[in-house]
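Weekend entry, working from home. Most of the wet-lab plans are on hold until the incubator is repaired, so I used the time to fold the two sequences that have been sitting in the queue since the last round of cloning. Logging both here for the record. First:
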Amino acid sequence: MTTAPDRPLRLAIIGAGPAGVYTADLLTKAERDFEVSIDLFDRYPAPYGLIRYGVAPDHPRIKGIVKALHKVLDRGDIRFLGGVDFGTDLTLEDLRRHYDAIVFATGAVKDAALDIPGADLEGSFGGADFVSWYDGHPDVPREWPLTAREVAVIGNGNVALDVARMLSKQADDLLVTEIPENVYEGLKSSPVTDVHVFGRRGPAQVKFTPLELRELAHARDVDLKLYPEDFEFDEASEEAATTNNQIKTMVGTLTNWLVEDQDTGASRRLHLHFLQQPVEILPGEGENAGKVAGLRMERMELDGTGNVRGTGEYIDYPVQAVYRAIGYHGSPVSGLTYDERRGVIPNDAGRVLDEDGNPVPGLYASGWIKRGPVGLIGHTKGDALETIGCLLEDEPDLWTADVPDEQAVIDLLEERGIEYTQWEGWLKLDEHELSLGTEATGTGPVERERVKVVAREDMVRISRG
């Protein structure tokens, strides 16, 4: 057994989003014959990761997930240490000295690349970057260039729908959410009239969920536009639509919208296109040289298996902005091997592997940095359970930390002048954001539950009292 019988096993988890919190929670509840002491680190002053900075503020499931994560961290048996950047404030060597094992749950926050001509034009944006802006991420600029009247969103997943909904929705209707003031003002001034969402495959192959889809119909002063030529179903599509209830529901919803053909004269239109693949983002001319002026798409057709092939038919859409929402990509983690193609830490069931493919004792991965950015948040629990199973199995062979005392890492942070935050600080910040919502309710047209604090220095100041 790696740990002395008179002390708990010390575990550091890097990342306080759903993957990190679920991993900590499952370990505390697992059957084991030793005690554990868990520190949950995050580079942001506040917890919750993707839930706070990666999901649209009007998403109906946010509150339920936040409540579940809050309940875990509020128990007091898992220590939260925010505002600590792994690789800068603390190194892998530092953590090895203070902990018997380390789990990396750093997620995936970058945009997956779209390798087509024009992707680097002015007005071509990553969907993840836009999400970070409208979610009040502390490390992104406060301004966003919302100058386009016609916009394209490439992708058919939940993030693409979130981006399209935020671009097309009336800003006043977002006041009931925790949307920061600078984001409200930016969206309020947007001149957008048309938002086009493009999917490479057909209506039966979309990657979003029925709940995300239905949210589109609830937007005030926004007409939904669909096109008959996009509704093609091959043998595999028809089978999927009859055997899979989720696909059946989404195909039924989309088909009903097509038949209804909304045209209420709304000030904005949200167009859903299928069976179109991006070929090139077109540049402008003259004074608009170097800027997005259009998007060239190739018409696709289903091949009988649910996959698609090109037809050689091209369609140009006049747009002044393109948002690439084709998925997330992980980032390298200091001191660990990294799979650039997949954007993950190479691992075997959660055990981190070295360059030769051998497990590194005491190092583990959980969540999207382990398996890639696929699946819903709920799938993270099963993923964390697998990682914890490996850690429990390996426990007798883990290294023994040189400085395992819980106060030692706090002393190290203090010595280095790191303005870390703790759970009590998050409770202060949480209360402050709720009070801002109360104040805004008193002076505004709608009831606001919360207004998110954006600036990192303000978050730290409020959290540290």
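Second, folded right after the first finished:
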Amino acid sequence: MTDPLTVSVLGTGIMGAAMARNLARAGHTVRAWNRTRDKAEPLAADGAVVADTPAEAVQGADVVLTMLYDGAAVLEVMRQAAPALSPGTAWVQSTTAGIDAIGELSELAGEHGLVFFDAPVLGTKQPAEAGQLLVLAAGPSKSRDAVTPVFDAVGARTVWTGEDGAAGSATRLKLVANSWVIAATNATGEVLALAKALGVDPQGFFDAIAGGPLDMGYLRVKAGLILNDQLTPASFAVSTAAKDARLIVEAGRQNGVRLDVANAGAERLARAAAQGHGDEDMAAAYFASFDEETDA
């Protein structure tokens, strides 16, 4: 390994906490902050220093990694943290923030002389915990050595999409990938709901498509969570998927593309959240096929 870094992780939810642990296991000094401190406290057992404020968390940082709910949250937190950072510090922005937000965040980085990397990740709880995420990254070649040890600690592979983080090429790719993930998840829920309504054993469907081009490991994994009532703890929560779905729909609209499936998927996820499934795995969008009073 290269010389250990001091990495500040702002946001220690499902993904941020796992990334912080893997950074600590790789030998880096980790300073962590979360809006709800109780969610960050367990990281102390892994050697991380848990801070009370974003500004305190980034003191002495070589790299700052943000993994928060959305772009607005990142902007708010980094406005508190950035004044405490030295010019030239690398900022790895891994929140799925949307195209418009990336522009705002990169402007903030420029105001404080930070080197901005647009670096969302593909993967959910299990690959995050195993350090097997796919990192999608855009940022200047001359500064990539500063963040490569961070990407190596949290991911199995890094795909570089461009030189300019402000252009949001990595975020654009992430939205495209998530559009497929969300569509596949919603389709899985609807298949199971229709099977239930028609009195079809889901296993009969799985047997019919087994080994063919319609079969998919992801379908079976998400269906298993629904059929076996294993929707908690979430790998990727309904509420977060609903936020991402809205970003996807908006990105399409702004670029002249009508995304009917994505729009319906966003509404479906929002409905599931309103029914009380927001903190469950995104597969719980299954319940959106039923009225609240219906036994799903």
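Plan for Monday: verify the second prediction. The chain has a mean pLDDT of 96.
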